[in-house]
Design goal:
Oligomer: single chain
Largest sheet: 10 strands, antiparallel
Radius of gyration: 20 Å
Number of domains: 2
Structural class: alpha+beta
CATH topology of the largest domain: Glucose Permease (Domain IIA)
Shape: globular
Number of strands: 16
Number of helices: 6
CATH class of the largest domain: Mainly Beta
Organism: Actinocorallia libanotica
Protein name: M23 family metallopeptidase
Pfam families: Peptidase_M23
Distance between the termini: 49 Å
Length: 298
């Protein structure tokens, strides 16, 4: 069954376009409705990894960022973290540099969404932050030609993002991930670093990289609401047919003393050791520092 799913998933972009064309034809022409259900079955095979598939044990790697960050859409809160198992996203996580970090105690303002014009990406602290390789490996894919678009941080922008998401979904995972790097870290483990800044890549396919090497910068490309890094581990180099792999980050510590109310407040009990949950502020040490500390240990 899994082999069939992967075979169908490789053709998911074509199937989705055929599905949309089929629905249009059903509305405009006198075509039997059972074709609709056939398309739905194929789409389910392409985009939904069956939950009964056995998950691999978590893989421990360094964090792809360093400093103070915040987690969203985290597998530390729910799985699948992004609401889908498609494109290898079962255990994917989004991280960004929060604005207005406040003490965890006391009252906190509720998030507010306005109707103004969306903000430029360079007004967000995460934009341009370095993205690091989480382990040694070989670059198998790299692209940074997509432009950094305005944030979707207003109701106007959010509605636009929903409509835009349909187009991106029809265009395939490359339009969803935006600028990205995919690295083979060995042992059937591949990492995808997505939404990178246009023109920021410092690697190309075939390059060997060491843990901690800067791959590029955080951007606002693909299906994003504001500049952030989308990170995931998967068992294939191509997200269309890949299954997600759970991970843990070495050198990461959740800051229980701080919150960023603009992105919500963390829920008690969520998160796991070395895996921050939704809305948790965390501190990440770079891989080179972890390696240096390990070499000095007796």
């Amino acid at each position: 069954m899994n082999g069939i799913r992967r075979s169908v998933a490789r053709r998911s972009d074509v199937l989705l376009k055929a599905f949309l064309a089929g629905v249009t034809a059903l509305l405009l022409l006198d075509i039997p409705g059972w074709w609709y259900w056939i398309f739905l079955v194929f789409l389910a095979l392409a985009y939904v990894r069956p939950p009964w598939d056995r998950a691999r044990a978590p893989v421990t790697v360094a964090a792809p960022v360093s400093g103070t960050w915040l987690a969203l859409n985290s597998p530390g809160s729910k799985v699948p973290a992004h609401g889908t198992r498609g494109y290898g996203q079962t255990y994917a996580i989004d991280v960004l540099i929060p604005r207005n970090v406040l003490p965890a105690t006391g009252e906190h303002p509720k998030p507010r969404f306005g109707w103004g014009l969306p903000a430029a990406p360079d007004t967000f602290p995460a934009f341009g932050a370095p993205v690091h390789a989480v382990a040694d490996g070989t670059v198998v894919a790299a692209a940074d030609g997509q432009r950094d678009h305005l944030a979707r941080n207003t109701w106007t922008g959010f509605v636009y993002m929903l409509l835009e998401g349909i187009v991106r979904q029809a265009g395939g995972w490359r339009l969803i991930f935006g600028n990205r790097v995919i690295i083979d870290h060995g042992g059937g483990v591949y990492a995808a670093y997505a939404h990178l800044r246009r023109g920021s890549l410092r690697v190309r396919p075939g390059d060997r990289v060491e843990a901690g090497r800067i791959l590029g910068e955080v951007g606002n490309t693909g299906n994003t609401s504001e500049p952030h890094l989308h990170f995931q581990l998967m068992d294939r180099p191509g997200p269309q047919e890949a299954a997600g792999i759970p991970f843990r980050w070495e050198g990461v510590a959740v800051r229980g003393d701080a919150v960023a109310p603009h992105y919500g407040l963390p829920k008690p009990g969520e998160g796991e050791p070395d895996l921050p949950a939704n809305a948790q502020v965390f501190q990440a040490r770079p891989a080179v520092q972890i390696a240096a500390d390990s070499s000095m240990s007796p």
